[in-house]
Design a protein that fits this description.
single chain, Hydantoin permease, 20 helices, mainly alpha, disordered C terminus, disordered N terminus
């Protein structure tokens, strides 16, 4: 298909929420999706996941292989979700109403909101540490709760301002962040090279006692969790790409490239620097302490701009999800509210929680409930062959009734039941330092929550859907019946 000949829209405060984007406004390109996935992920909030395998007691090469395997598996599952919003012109949680029902799609909105909340808090938390640490070494800034609190507040405000402007600013900012951070990481390899060792950084052995259970934990917590963080975010950007000017293949390819590069580059850098700085219990503190003086300024700049870029993308998505849950809220008001909640989580992460246990438990539990939602959405997309009624998807947002996705009171009970079954199986198979599911006794102590959740969901959804065909619009724009 021909490229979009029109110039990019000027940067201004985005007016669209979770409504259907008119084709005239769908000026995005597939490379914009790749750019924002690359740029928004090159920050310490993603880098820190490369430290997790080291903190689990793995040696360097098993840590690397676990992340590569997990990221590849996650990308294969998650990247096709970009095609859903590419077809519907709205975000993914709203699009999932075609399979869960126009009210049942609230499952996706809540999952997306929780995922973005947690990852945004993690991004600001690690970014704040990367700002305070270098300033402490360079200028003697007190490395205490007051300095961290002020830094967190400033980063949160800057991030929410970027999120309020929305799509156009985020896509342009991501390009510059990507360029600067790739250069920083390349320089960082030289900065830490003379300290690098492949031996474990902990003295306590494998976190789960044996190699394979710990390696499997790393596959899920450090590798798979990266792509899973995007199960509801991809549609925020693919909805701006017009199917009249671009093909599904180019959108899918750009999404895969952006996810793989955007996740593996920072995570592998995190693994390398974790082993070089011997970061056992505290990644960012060890990273700053082991950095040469000349590398502190680049590290500080990444702490600021990398955090703003990544947290801005996540807060933007949170605003869309809350807007979808509470339609009377505007996108801007929803964005400000969710950013305030995320900032509270940042302070809890610094003053209350243990970093490693909190991060690991968070990503594993949300992966267990997010995977079933993604599986159902993808199966539904395949069953309807990408044909949706965009107007009928907006019924809940208009506070009306009817349309081909109304199902039973706005809920597809079969999809909701399949999601519940898959989530339950996944939660029963999770293995973290805070919680161990009873199914671990049947899996040899290896965390197979992702695989079991996906398989249970697919089987139950297909079985429950026998005799219940996927609604397909008879015409390109079938109107929903309003009944306020």
């Amino acid at each position: 298909m021909p490229s979009d000949p029109r110039p990019a829209a000027p940067v201004s405060i985005e007016t669209h929420g979770v409504d259907t984007i008119p084709d005239a406004d769908r000026t995005g390109r597939p490379r914009d999706i790749a750019g924002i996935l690359l740029g928004s992920n090159l920050c310490l909030g993603v880098v820190i996941f490369g430290w997790l395998p080291a903190s689990f007691g793995l040696e360097f090469w098993p840590a690397v292989t676990s992340m590569i395997v997990g990221t590849l598996l996650g990308t294969l599952l998650v990247a096709p979700l970009a095609l859903v919003s590419f077809r519907t012109g709205t975000n993914l949680s709203t699009s999932s109403g075609g399979h869960f029902g126009v009210r049942g799609r609230l499952i996706g909105s809540v999952i997306g909101l929780l995922l973005s909340l947690g990852y945004a808090a993690l991004t600001v938390w690690t970014g704040g540490a990367a700002v305070v640490g270098p300033l402490h070494r360079m200028f003697g800034l007190p490395d205490d709760g007051v300095s961290h609190s002020i830094t967190y507040a400033v980063l949160a405000v800057l991030s929410v301002l970027v999120a309020i402007f929305g799509y156009q600013l985020l896509t342009r900012l991501s390009k510059w962040v990507a360029l600067g951070t790739v250069l920083l990481m390349a320089v960082g390899l030289f900065a830490y090279a003379d300290q690098f060792q492949t031996s474990p950084v902990t003295d306590s052995g494998y976190l789960l006692g044996d190699f394979w259970p710990t390696w499997a934990l790393s596959v899920v917590a450090a590798g798979l969790s990266g792509p899973m963080a995007f199960i509801t975010l991809l549609g925020d950007y693919s909805r701006y790409v017009s199917p009249r000017r671009h093909s599904a293949g180019t959108v899918f390819g750009a999404t895969c490239a952006g996810m793989l590069l955007g996740l593996l580059i920072p995570q592998l850098f995190g693994t390398f620097t974790a082993f070089a700085s011997r970061a056992a219990d505290d990644y960012v503190g060890s990273l700053v302490a082991a950095a040469p003086l000349w590398f502190l300024l680049p590290l500080l700049l990444n702490g600021v701009f990398g955090t703003i870029g990544n947290a801005g993308v996540l807060i933007y998505s949170m605003g869309l999800d809350l807007d979808a849950i509470v339609p009377p809220l505007s996108r801007v008001k929803a964005t400000v509210l969710t950013s305030a909640i995320s900032t509270v989580l940042v302070f809890l992460g610094y003053f209350v929680w243990d970093a490693q246990d909190a991060v690991t438990a968070f990503v594993l539990l949300l992966t267990a409930v997010g995977t079933p939602w993604a599986v159902i959405t993808l199966i539904g997309f395949a069953r309807c062959r990408g044909a949706y009624d965009p107007d009928a998807l907006q019924v809940y947002n208009r506070r009306s009734r009817g349309g081909i996705y109304w199902y039973s009171g706005g809920w597809n009970l079969r999809a909701a039941a399949a999601w519940a079954i898959g989530s339950l199986v996944g939660l029963l198979a999770v293995d973290t330092a805070l919680y161990k599911g009873p199914l671990l006794a049947l899996t040899g102590g290896i965390d197979l929550s992702f695989v079991l959740a996906a398989a249970a969901t697919a089987a139950s959804y297909l079985l429950l859907g026998i005799g219940s065909p996927q609604p397909v619009p008879a015409e390109p724009d079938v109107r929903a019946t309003a009944n306020v």
